[in-house]
Design goal:
This protein is 41% helix and 21% strand. It has 9 helices and 11 strands. A 6-stranded antiparallel β-sheet has the order 1-2-11-10-7-8. Strands 3-4-5-6-9 form a 5-stranded antiparallel β-sheet, with helices on one face. A hairpin with a 4-residue loop joins strand 5 (195-202) and strand 6 (207-213). Helix 1 (3-26) packs antiparallel against helix 2.
Protein backbone atom coordinates (compact mmCIF):
# COMPACT_ATOMS: atom_id res chain seq x y z
CA UNK A 1 0.00 0.00 0.00
CA UNK A 2 1.29 3.49 -0.88
CA UNK A 3 2.81 5.42 2.02
CA UNK A 4 0.37 8.32 1.71
CA UNK A 5 -2.61 5.94 1.87
CA UNK A 6 -1.09 4.09 4.83
CA UNK A 7 -0.54 7.40 6.66
CA UNK A 8 -4.10 8.44 5.86
CA UNK A 9 -5.55 5.20 7.27
CA UNK A 10 -3.34 5.37 10.34
CA UNK A 11 -4.52 8.93 11.01
CA UNK A 12 -8.13 7.83 10.57
CA UNK A 13 -7.70 4.98 13.05
CA UNK A 14 -5.94 7.15 15.62
CA UNK A 15 -8.73 9.72 15.39
CA UNK A 16 -11.35 7.00 15.82
CA UNK A 17 -9.47 5.68 18.86
CA UNK A 18 -9.49 9.12 20.52
CA UNK A 19 -13.20 9.51 19.92
CA UNK A 20 -13.99 5.99 21.12
CA UNK A 21 -11.93 6.40 24.27
CA UNK A 22 -13.86 9.56 25.11
CA UNK A 23 -17.17 7.81 24.42
CA UNK A 24 -16.24 4.75 26.49
CA UNK A 25 -15.22 7.00 29.40
CA UNK A 26 -18.63 8.66 29.39
CA UNK A 27 -20.60 5.41 28.87
CA UNK A 28 -18.41 2.62 30.35
CA UNK A 29 -21.18 -0.01 30.18
CA UNK A 30 -21.58 0.24 26.42
CA UNK A 31 -20.05 -3.07 25.28
CA UNK A 32 -20.48 -2.10 21.63
CA UNK A 33 -18.15 0.88 21.98
CA UNK A 34 -15.64 -1.21 23.90
CA UNK A 35 -15.69 -3.80 21.12
CA UNK A 36 -15.07 -1.16 18.45
CA UNK A 37 -12.19 0.26 20.50
CA UNK A 38 -10.66 -3.23 20.65
CA UNK A 39 -10.97 -3.53 16.84
CA UNK A 40 -9.24 -0.18 16.33
CA UNK A 41 -6.44 -1.09 18.76
CA UNK A 42 -5.97 -4.38 16.91
CA UNK A 43 -5.70 -2.58 13.55
CA UNK A 44 -3.13 -0.12 14.94
CA UNK A 45 -1.18 -3.03 16.41
CA UNK A 46 -1.10 -4.73 12.98
CA UNK A 47 0.21 -1.49 11.52
CA UNK A 48 3.12 -1.51 13.98
CA UNK A 49 3.89 -5.14 13.16
CA UNK A 50 3.68 -4.55 9.40
CA UNK A 51 0.80 -6.98 8.90
CA UNK A 52 -1.98 -4.43 8.37
CA UNK A 53 -3.88 -4.87 5.13
CA UNK A 54 -3.15 -8.62 4.94
CA UNK A 55 -5.99 -11.13 5.07
CA UNK A 56 -5.95 -13.05 8.37
CA UNK A 57 -6.93 -16.22 6.51
CA UNK A 58 -4.67 -16.37 3.43
CA UNK A 59 -2.23 -13.52 4.24
CA UNK A 60 -2.78 -12.04 0.78
CA UNK A 61 -3.47 -8.31 0.35
CA UNK A 62 -6.93 -7.05 1.27
CA UNK A 63 -8.54 -5.04 -1.54
CA UNK A 64 -7.42 -1.39 -1.43
CA UNK A 65 -10.89 0.07 -2.05
CA UNK A 66 -12.34 -1.89 0.85
CA UNK A 67 -9.63 -0.71 3.25
CA UNK A 68 -10.19 2.90 2.26
CA UNK A 69 -13.93 2.48 2.82
CA UNK A 70 -13.49 0.58 6.12
CA UNK A 71 -10.02 0.58 7.77
CA UNK A 72 -11.10 -2.27 10.09
CA UNK A 73 -11.49 -4.83 7.29
CA UNK A 74 -9.47 -7.97 8.12
CA UNK A 75 -10.32 -10.47 5.37
CA UNK A 76 -10.06 -10.37 1.58
CA UNK A 77 -13.19 -10.97 -0.49
CA UNK A 78 -12.29 -14.63 -1.02
CA UNK A 79 -12.46 -15.34 2.70
CA UNK A 80 -15.57 -13.54 3.87
CA UNK A 81 -18.18 -15.56 5.71
CA UNK A 82 -21.54 -16.15 4.04
CA UNK A 83 -23.09 -13.57 6.36
CA UNK A 84 -20.39 -11.03 5.49
CA UNK A 85 -20.83 -11.69 1.75
CA UNK A 86 -24.58 -11.17 2.02
CA UNK A 87 -24.09 -7.92 3.96
CA UNK A 88 -21.55 -6.69 1.40
CA UNK A 89 -23.91 -7.51 -1.47
CA UNK A 90 -26.73 -5.59 0.22
CA UNK A 91 -24.44 -2.59 0.62
CA UNK A 92 -23.35 -2.75 -3.02
CA UNK A 93 -26.94 -3.07 -4.22
CA UNK A 94 -27.88 -0.01 -2.19
CA UNK A 95 -24.84 1.94 -3.45
CA UNK A 96 -25.77 1.02 -7.02
CA UNK A 97 -29.32 2.24 -6.52
CA UNK A 98 -28.13 5.51 -4.96
CA UNK A 99 -25.69 6.09 -7.82
CA UNK A 100 -28.31 5.48 -10.50
CA UNK A 101 -30.63 7.92 -8.73
CA UNK A 102 -27.95 10.58 -9.27
CA UNK A 103 -28.13 10.17 -13.05
CA UNK A 104 -30.05 12.79 -15.05
CA UNK A 105 -33.49 12.28 -16.52
CA UNK A 106 -33.50 10.13 -19.63
CA UNK A 107 -34.36 11.87 -22.93
CA UNK A 108 -34.05 15.35 -21.45
CA UNK A 109 -34.92 18.17 -23.90
CA UNK A 110 -33.99 21.73 -22.92
CA UNK A 111 -33.98 25.02 -24.84
CA UNK A 112 -33.58 23.48 -28.27
CA UNK A 113 -31.30 20.62 -27.17
CA UNK A 114 -32.19 16.93 -27.19
CA UNK A 115 -30.12 14.48 -25.14
CA UNK A 116 -29.57 10.79 -24.53
CA UNK A 117 -26.99 8.79 -22.58
CA UNK A 118 -25.93 5.23 -21.81
CA UNK A 119 -24.46 4.37 -18.38
CA UNK A 120 -22.88 0.93 -17.97
CA UNK A 121 -20.81 0.10 -14.85
CA UNK A 122 -18.44 -2.84 -15.06
CA UNK A 123 -19.48 -3.78 -11.51
CA UNK A 124 -22.16 -2.78 -9.05
CA UNK A 125 -20.98 0.85 -8.96
CA UNK A 126 -19.09 3.07 -11.38
CA UNK A 127 -16.43 5.75 -11.37
CA UNK A 128 -18.00 7.38 -14.43
CA UNK A 129 -19.86 10.65 -13.97
CA UNK A 130 -22.70 11.92 -16.15
CA UNK A 131 -25.06 14.83 -15.53
CA UNK A 132 -27.30 17.29 -17.36
CA UNK A 133 -28.42 20.49 -15.64
CA UNK A 134 -30.87 23.00 -17.16
CA UNK A 135 -29.75 26.46 -16.06
CA UNK A 136 -31.30 29.82 -16.95
CA UNK A 137 -32.48 28.67 -20.37
CA UNK A 138 -29.18 26.89 -21.10
CA UNK A 139 -27.98 23.33 -20.70
CA UNK A 140 -24.94 22.28 -18.67
CA UNK A 141 -23.56 18.87 -19.56
CA UNK A 142 -20.84 16.89 -17.80
CA UNK A 143 -19.12 13.59 -18.48
CA UNK A 144 -16.21 12.39 -16.37
CA UNK A 145 -14.14 9.38 -15.38
CA UNK A 146 -12.66 9.03 -11.90
CA UNK A 147 -9.40 7.08 -11.61
CA UNK A 148 -9.80 3.54 -10.31
CA UNK A 149 -12.90 1.42 -10.03
CA UNK A 150 -15.34 0.24 -7.42
CA UNK A 151 -16.64 1.90 -4.30
CA UNK A 152 -13.81 4.43 -3.82
CA UNK A 153 -14.19 5.70 -7.41
CA UNK A 154 -17.98 5.85 -7.05
CA UNK A 155 -17.61 7.99 -3.92
CA UNK A 156 -15.52 10.52 -5.84
CA UNK A 157 -18.09 10.41 -8.64
CA UNK A 158 -20.77 11.34 -6.10
CA UNK A 159 -18.57 14.22 -4.90
CA UNK A 160 -18.26 15.50 -8.47
CA UNK A 161 -22.03 15.37 -8.82
CA UNK A 162 -22.63 17.26 -5.57
CA UNK A 163 -20.00 19.90 -6.34
CA UNK A 164 -21.35 20.66 -9.81
CA UNK A 165 -24.92 20.77 -8.56
CA UNK A 166 -23.95 23.16 -5.75
CA UNK A 167 -21.69 25.47 -7.74
CA UNK A 168 -24.07 25.84 -10.67
CA UNK A 169 -26.60 27.37 -8.27
CA UNK A 170 -24.16 30.27 -7.77
CA UNK A 171 -24.27 31.36 -11.44
CA UNK A 172 -20.47 31.21 -11.74
CA UNK A 173 -18.73 31.05 -15.13
CA UNK A 174 -18.08 27.44 -16.12
CA UNK A 175 -14.31 27.97 -16.07
CA UNK A 176 -14.50 29.05 -12.43
CA UNK A 177 -16.63 26.04 -11.53
CA UNK A 178 -14.05 23.68 -13.06
CA UNK A 179 -11.22 25.50 -11.23
CA UNK A 180 -13.03 25.27 -7.88
CA UNK A 181 -13.64 21.56 -8.34
CA UNK A 182 -10.00 21.00 -9.31
CA UNK A 183 -8.86 22.69 -6.09
CA UNK A 184 -11.26 20.59 -4.04
CA UNK A 185 -9.91 17.39 -5.58
CA UNK A 186 -6.33 18.48 -4.94
CA UNK A 187 -7.11 19.21 -1.31
CA UNK A 188 -9.31 16.21 -0.50
CA UNK A 189 -8.52 13.26 -2.77
CA UNK A 190 -5.96 10.63 -1.86
CA UNK A 191 -2.64 10.45 -3.67
CA UNK A 192 -3.07 9.12 -7.19
CA UNK A 193 -6.77 9.93 -7.38
CA UNK A 194 -7.91 12.26 -10.15
CA UNK A 195 -10.75 12.68 -12.62
CA UNK A 196 -10.86 13.41 -16.31
CA UNK A 197 -13.77 15.61 -17.30
CA UNK A 198 -15.43 17.11 -20.35
CA UNK A 199 -18.17 19.60 -19.61
CA UNK A 200 -19.88 22.43 -21.38
CA UNK A 201 -22.63 24.96 -21.69
CA UNK A 202 -25.07 24.69 -24.60
CA UNK A 203 -26.93 27.91 -25.38
CA UNK A 204 -30.26 28.31 -27.21
CA UNK A 205 -28.53 29.97 -30.20
CA UNK A 206 -26.44 26.84 -30.86
CA UNK A 207 -23.20 28.10 -29.29
CA UNK A 208 -21.46 25.51 -27.10
CA UNK A 209 -18.62 26.23 -24.66
CA UNK A 210 -16.56 23.09 -24.01
CA UNK A 211 -13.94 22.44 -21.33
CA UNK A 212 -11.93 19.23 -21.67
CA UNK A 213 -9.71 18.37 -18.68
CA UNK A 214 -7.67 15.36 -19.75
CA UNK A 215 -10.69 13.47 -21.09
CA UNK A 216 -11.32 11.62 -24.35
CA UNK A 217 -11.93 13.99 -27.28
CA UNK A 218 -15.40 15.44 -27.75
CA UNK A 219 -16.81 14.83 -31.22
CA UNK A 220 -19.06 17.24 -33.12
CA UNK A 221 -20.83 15.77 -36.14
CA UNK A 222 -23.23 17.35 -38.60
CA UNK A 223 -23.69 18.71 -42.09
CA UNK A 224 -20.13 20.08 -42.11
CA UNK A 225 -18.52 16.73 -41.26
CA UNK A 226 -16.83 15.63 -38.05
CA UNK A 227 -14.74 17.78 -35.70
CA UNK A 228 -12.61 16.31 -32.94
CA UNK A 229 -12.12 18.54 -29.86
CA UNK A 230 -9.09 17.45 -27.87
CA UNK A 231 -8.28 18.04 -24.23
CA UNK A 232 -6.95 21.51 -23.38
CA UNK A 233 -6.10 20.85 -19.73
CA UNK A 234 -4.86 18.30 -17.21
CA UNK A 235 -7.22 16.00 -15.28
CA UNK A 236 -8.79 17.38 -12.12
CA UNK A 237 -6.85 16.80 -8.91
CA UNK A 238 -3.32 16.70 -10.32
CA UNK A 239 -2.10 20.27 -9.72
CA UNK A 240 -3.64 23.02 -7.63
CA UNK A 241 -2.81 25.92 -9.95
CA UNK A 242 -4.08 24.74 -13.33
CA UNK A 243 -5.86 26.83 -15.95
CA UNK A 244 -8.75 25.36 -17.90
CA UNK A 245 -9.37 26.99 -21.25
CA UNK A 246 -12.54 26.64 -23.31
CA UNK A 247 -13.23 25.68 -26.91
CA UNK A 248 -16.30 27.30 -28.46
CA UNK A 249 -18.19 25.73 -31.36
CA UNK A 250 -21.38 26.65 -33.21
CA UNK A 251 -23.86 23.84 -33.78
CA UNK A 252 -26.60 24.05 -36.40
CA UNK A 253 -29.95 22.27 -36.28
CA UNK A 254 -29.30 18.51 -36.46
CA UNK A 255 -25.64 18.75 -35.35
CA UNK A 256 -24.66 16.50 -32.45
CA UNK A 257 -22.05 16.61 -29.72
CA UNK A 258 -20.92 13.06 -28.89
CA UNK A 259 -19.07 12.36 -25.62
CA UNK A 260 -17.78 9.11 -24.17
CA UNK A 261 -15.51 7.63 -21.50
CA UNK A 262 -12.56 5.39 -22.34
CA UNK A 263 -14.62 2.31 -21.58
CA UNK A 264 -15.87 2.73 -25.16
CA UNK A 265 -12.66 3.67 -26.98
CA UNK A 266 -10.57 1.08 -25.08
CA UNK A 267 -13.02 -1.79 -25.53
CA UNK A 268 -10.90 -4.55 -27.04
CA UNK A 269 -11.11 -7.48 -29.38
CA UNK A 270 -8.44 -10.17 -29.22
CA UNK A 271 -5.83 -8.02 -30.98
CA UNK A 272 -6.97 -4.41 -31.04
CA UNK A 273 -8.84 -1.62 -29.26
CA UNK A 274 -12.02 -0.10 -30.63
CA UNK A 275 -10.32 3.31 -30.63
CA UNK A 276 -11.35 6.93 -31.13
CA UNK A 277 -11.01 6.69 -34.92
CA UNK A 278 -13.68 3.97 -35.06
CA UNK A 279 -15.92 6.08 -32.85
CA UNK A 280 -15.53 9.00 -35.27
CA UNK A 281 -16.23 6.80 -38.29
CA UNK A 282 -19.39 5.40 -36.74
CA UNK A 283 -20.61 8.82 -35.67
CA UNK A 284 -20.00 10.19 -39.17
CA UNK A 285 -21.96 7.32 -40.74
CA UNK A 286 -24.88 7.83 -38.33
CA UNK A 287 -24.84 11.64 -38.33
CA UNK A 288 -28.52 11.91 -39.25
CA UNK A 289 -29.66 9.82 -36.27
CA UNK A 290 -31.34 11.11 -33.15
CA UNK A 291 -29.21 10.95 -29.96
CA UNK A 292 -30.66 7.67 -28.65
CA UNK A 293 -30.35 6.02 -32.09
CA UNK A 294 -26.77 7.25 -32.48
CA UNK A 295 -25.74 5.81 -29.11
CA UNK A 296 -27.45 2.50 -29.84
CA UNK A 297 -25.70 2.23 -33.22
CA UNK A 298 -22.33 2.96 -31.60
CA UNK A 299 -22.83 0.34 -28.88
CA UNK A 300 -23.93 -2.26 -31.44
CA UNK A 301 -20.83 -1.56 -33.54
CA UNK A 302 -18.53 -1.75 -30.53
CA UNK A 303 -20.03 -5.05 -29.38
CA UNK A 304 -19.72 -6.51 -32.85
CA UNK A 305 -16.06 -5.44 -32.84
CA UNK A 306 -15.38 -7.06 -29.46
CA UNK A 307 -17.51 -10.08 -30.39
CA UNK A 308 -19.53 -9.68 -27.20
CA UNK A 309 -16.48 -10.08 -24.97
CA UNK A 310 -16.45 -9.04 -21.32
CA UNK A 311 -15.93 -5.38 -20.51
CA UNK A 312 -13.15 -4.42 -18.09
CA UNK A 313 -14.01 -0.75 -17.59
CA UNK A 314 -17.02 1.41 -16.86
CA UNK A 315 -18.56 2.91 -19.98
CA UNK A 316 -20.72 6.00 -20.40
CA UNK A 317 -21.81 7.69 -23.63
CA UNK A 318 -23.64 11.02 -23.95
CA UNK A 319 -25.14 12.67 -27.06
CA UNK A 320 -26.43 16.26 -27.15
CA UNK A 321 -28.16 17.34 -30.37
CA UNK A 322 -29.43 20.75 -31.45
CA UNK A 323 -33.04 20.45 -32.53
CA UNK A 324 -35.66 22.84 -33.92
Amino acid sequence: MATVEFDFLQGQLEERKRRLEAAVASTPRNSGLAGLLHEVDSALDRMEKGTYGLCLECHDTVERDRLLADPLVRYCLDHLTRQQRDALQRDLDLASQVQRNLLPKKGLCVSGWETSYHFEPVGAVSGDYCDLIPSEGQLLFMLGDVSGKGVAASMLMAQLHALFRSLTQMSLPLSQIVSHINRFFCESALAGQYATLVCGLAKPNGEVEIHNAGHCPAIVVGRNGVVRIESTGLPLGMFMETEFSATCVQLETGDTLFLFTDGLSEAASENDEYGVDRVMTLVRQQAACKPAELIAACLDDMRAFTKGGSSFDDMTVLAVQRCD
